[in-house]
Amino acid sequence: MAVGTLALFYPVFLPMSAAITAYAGHRAMHVDWRTLLKHFLTGPGRTSRILLTFFILLNWKSMPLAWTVRVFHSFIYHALRRPKTLPQRALFQYSITSSRTSLLETDYNIHKSNSTYFADLDVSRSHLVTHLLGPGLPIIGANATNKLVRDKQGAVVKGSLGVGLGAVFCSFRKEIAPLQGYEMWSRLLAWDRKWLYIVTHFVIKGKVRPNGGWSGKGKRRAGAENGKLPEDFGKYVIATAVSKYVFKLGRFTVHPALVIEASKLLPERPGEGWTGGETGTGTPEDLGDLEGLEGDIEWDWKRVEAERRKGLRYADHFAALDGTNSLFDGGEDGAIGKFPLG
């Protein structure tokens, strides 16, 4: 999800989108499409119109309001299409979104500009978070009724629910050519007391397929031979990004585990649960030999915690970069200049 409040989406933007779609559909029923198409293809100025249409189709994702349409589409799509329940293992599974480099995203090196990756990340994260946490967000948003989020004094926290993007890191490995297709594989990496961390891999389109299909069901991964799977998937990775989200009720920071629990994706954890202990992420029990294991073992609280800790080893280094804000000294030793057209 992009930065902003979710309080306006369901009561305002969703009904507004439905009304606009209904009105457009009503108007379209009274249009003589055959005459309109004939005039478009044969009337005066047809060459300019056809070329402009072709240009817009190649660059639709770079057109005005296209970003808004792409992000809001993810909200509406998962509100209508998401299954009522997801398997426990889905918490750390990938959400896959396809895209293609438009001509307007191409820089002077004749490949996708590095700056345009971040708009794609907004869309990919929106699909992941809305699909995974869609059921839990309205529950947390209605906290005055559900009373799941409380402050240190035990009082019920009130306010509108917002999801804020705190930071994004992106490491580039390969270039993406103009009009080349690619996929964004996003999944939950980890969480701590404040942040929910998401990792996204930009992958060459069609080269990798999830093992077992969707949520562990379906065909095995393409390319498997004699029951063995290829291990070097990194050669298909174009870039990798890590993002962090914060959930807010008004100005109060909501523990990410509460949102995940409300979405019924966390198994019950003994002791103080997922928000206790000195770190606020559960008592640091010794997980024994379970940590780091792969395979089809049960996704109980230990398996989930092991996966969270594994991701947190990377997320902690990313979070430490917040301290670089303190390096800014306001040009104590001067500056080399101030330049136009920034």
From TrEMBL:
Keyword tags: Membrane, Transmembrane, Transmembrane helix
Membrane-spanning residues: 48-72
SUPFAM superfamilies in alphabetical order: Thioesterase/thiol ester dehydrase-isomerase
Disordered as annotated region, ranges: 269-289
InterPro entries: HotDog_dom_sf, THEM6_lcsJ_thioesterase
Family as reported in the entry's similarity comment: Belongs to the lcsJ thioesterase family.
Name under which the protein is recorded: Capsule polysaccharide biosynthesis protein
Provenance organism: Chaetomium fimeti
